[in-house]
Automatic annotation (TrEMBL):
Cleaved signal peptide residues: none
GO CC annotation, single: plasma membrane
UniProt organism field: Bathycoccus prasinos
Stored SUPFAM superfamilies: SAICAR synthase-like (SSF56104)
Name of the featured protein: 1-phosphatidylinositol-4-phosphate 5-kinase
Record domain PIPK: where: 1-304
Length: 307
């Protein structure tokens, strides 16, 4: 396969050819539609490289050591493909796995859970049902991540006397809002999405996975678009999971997708669990896959409120 005009070595492509075909994605989807020079640290704790495709419909991400262990396990790719091709899944669509010849690193290419046809979202949340929840976008503006680090004694002092930077305050408020605010759906929509979540969680538990997130993007739609299929404006619309819902006299479109689901329950995570139980804000994300799945399900059962 050629990605970014560079010949790469694909893995399990007999499986992912079926996934691409199932979602109407050409084998040449990243031929000249990606530039490896755009790869940057994605902002997560692992520091893996990440970049969008030039068209914005896809992402390429470098795999961490733990991600590689999951991807290269005997059954993951086959079971994953069965899950997403059933169409009853919120999982982000992995479209290929490949190794670059120039650096030997392993990458995945995946579909964007949010259509690029909408340029300004009212809200985008990254949700786990834990203290790690955060707001990524609010009122069309990106919410910068401004973490409090123990080695920044100046920050500690300023926060202790009530002097917090605007960006830090906006980030903290966004975290609180992401964890506590409700998302409105109809009764049937909630039933549908919770049934799908439970099916995906069963897959995660069987694969011993945890620390995944739900991306939720929300946009109020003008009344003139009430009878227009919002999704039809986006390319590769089958890759998206979306709902239209009225809340009073306001019409919203809600997109959801589960991402970052390759983290296994490793020795490092077990050690981190002990440390975070003692020092980190609760609820924590670093818990056994069975506990994480139960926590995730219970959170969204309460998060999704019906009209």
């Amino acid at each position: 396969m050629i990605i970014g005009n560079e010949l790469v070595e694909t893995l399990y492509d007999d499986i992912f050819t079926k996934v691409r075909s199932g979602f109407g994605v050409s084998d040449e989807f990243l031929l000249s539609n990606f530039d490896f020079e755009n790869l940057r640290e994605g902002g997560g704790k692992g520091g893996s490289l990440l970049s969008r495709s030039l068209c914005g419909n896809f992402f390429v991400k470098e795999l961490s050591k733990s991600d590689k262990h999951t991807i290269l396990s005997g059954s993951f790719c086959e079971l994953y493909s069965e899950c997403v091709l059933s169409r009853d899944s919120l999982l982000c669509r992995i479209l290929c796995i490949f190794t670059r010849r120039v650096d030997g690193k392993l990458y995945i290419a995946m579909g964007n859970c949010i259509p690029i046809s909408e340029k300004s979202w009212d809200l985008i949340y990254d949700l786990k049902g834990t203290a790690d929840d955060k707001t990524l976008v609010r009122n069309g503006k990106t919410v910068d991540e401004v973490h409090k680090r123990f080695w920044r004694l100046d920050w500690m002092f300023l926060e202790a006397i009530g002097k917090v930077t605007k960006n830090r305050l906006r980030y903290v408020e966004g975290k609180r809002e992401a964890f506590t605010s409700s998302i409105i759906l109809t009764t049937e929509q909630k039933k549908e999405i919770m049934t799908t979540i439970k099916r995906d969680l069963q897959f995660f538990v069987e694969q011993d996975l945890m620390d995944y997130s739900m991306i939720v993007a929300i946009k109020q739609i003008d009344k003139v678009h009430e009878k227009i299929s919002f999704e039809s404006t986006a390319i590769h619309e089958d890759m998206y999971n979306s709902f239209k819902v009225w809340d009073g006299d306001k019409l919203y479109i809600v997109y959801v997708g589960i991402i970052d689901f390759l983290q296994g329950w490793t020795t490092g995570k077990r050690v981190a669990h002990v440390i975070k139980c003692m020092f980190a804000p609760k609820p924590i994300s670093t818990v056994h896959p069975v506990v994480y799945a139960e926590q995730f399900e219970n959170f969204f059962e309460k998060k999704f409120c019906t009209t």
